Amino acid sequence: MDYIDDFNELIKKSALGNADAFRTLYEHLIDKVFAYVRYRSHSEDDATDITQEIFVDFYKSLPNFTYASREQFYGFVFTITKRKLAKYYANKHTRAIKNQSEFDEQKHGEFLDNSSVSDEVTRALEKLDALAREIVVLHHWSRYTFSEIATLISMKESAVRVRHHRALKSLSVSLDSR
């Protein structure tokens, strides 16, 4: 579902336990959230688990949420998503420290498959600064509009568009040089 007329009504009904209203919100958000989490976690299984946790937190938070605008709503969801990803990375880092001997045995490039186009794009994305990478991922993987991204990262829409354009140019140069 790409468009919802009345987020406010769905949020109110969901907060009161209306399963159909929550399902509508879930179906509207799931592809965007999963695509973003999948890109950030680099693992389909982890992305599935994290996304599930995001929606549990989202559901629990709805009674305390006051709807003001579509962009503010997406910001609310994105904040939950960022917190869950931060927790994921913190836990992943802790596991990495515990398994340091195993990690030391692995070579840095072992995780990359040079024959894959998606890996080339991932490496090119990693060369971008964090904000530019975030904008590209939010726009192309999670399908947020520039207006929504501007709200999510507290920038003007025109600045987001400029950053996006520059990032695509940089990606083009990186990918053409391969």
Automatic annotation (TrEMBL):
Keyword entries, A-Z: DNA-binding, Sigma factor, Transcription, Transcription regulation
Family classification: Belongs to the sigma-70 factor family. ECF subfamily.
GO terms of molecular function: DNA binding; sigma factor activity
Gene Ontology biological process terms in this record: DNA-templated transcription initiation
Domain RNA polymerase sigma-70 region span(s) in chain numbering: 25-91
Organism: Candidatus Kaiserbacteria bacterium CG_4_9_14_0_2_um_filter_41_32
Domain of life: Bacteria
Lineage: Bacteria, Candidatus Kaiseribacteriota
Limits of the RNA polymerase sigma factor 70 region 4 type domain: 119-171
Protein name: RNA polymerase sigma factor
